[in-house]
Amino acid sequence: MPTAADRETRREILKFLRKVETAWLGGRFDELRSCFREDAVLLGADLEQRLEGRDAIVDSYAQFLREARVLAFESEAPIVDVIGDAAVTVTPWAVRYEREGTIYDETGGDLLVLARDEEGWKVAWRTLLPRQSADE
User: Fold this and answer.
1) Domain membership flag for residue 136
2) What CATH number corresponds to the domain at position 43?
3) What is the domain extent for residue 57?
4) pLDDT tens digits, residue range 50-72?
5) What confidence tens digit (pLDDT) does each residue in 11-45 have?
6) What is the rounded CA–CA span in Å between residue 50 and residue 60?
């Protein structure tokens, strides 16, 4: 049974995840930068592309928003597992965006590994989990 401290930690993490989401969607990249550890890693959905470092990761978010116009974004309730000062989260989402005149509809999830330090929770590692449709 979760304790009051467990519930509070989960609330902190959910609030943090919302901050990450609203910062990137709002193009507030300084705020987004503060959500990542300096040594954070982003692993592409293909498990081959890799970005290392907070600045490179935040620049990838900025590049996406320069090249695409987000038309709709919805996220589902995150799955959160806390292990001491670390947490693993999965947040399913759906996005519709326009890039170079083409509309894209994608669904997937963000898998994040979070680490808590004296400043609070930070993203240490991220990858994208693309969802396969039933006919693929």
Assistant:
1) no
2) 3.10.450.50
3) 4-129
4) 999 999 999 999 999 999 999 99
5) 999 999 999 999 999 999 999 999 999 999 999 88
6) 11
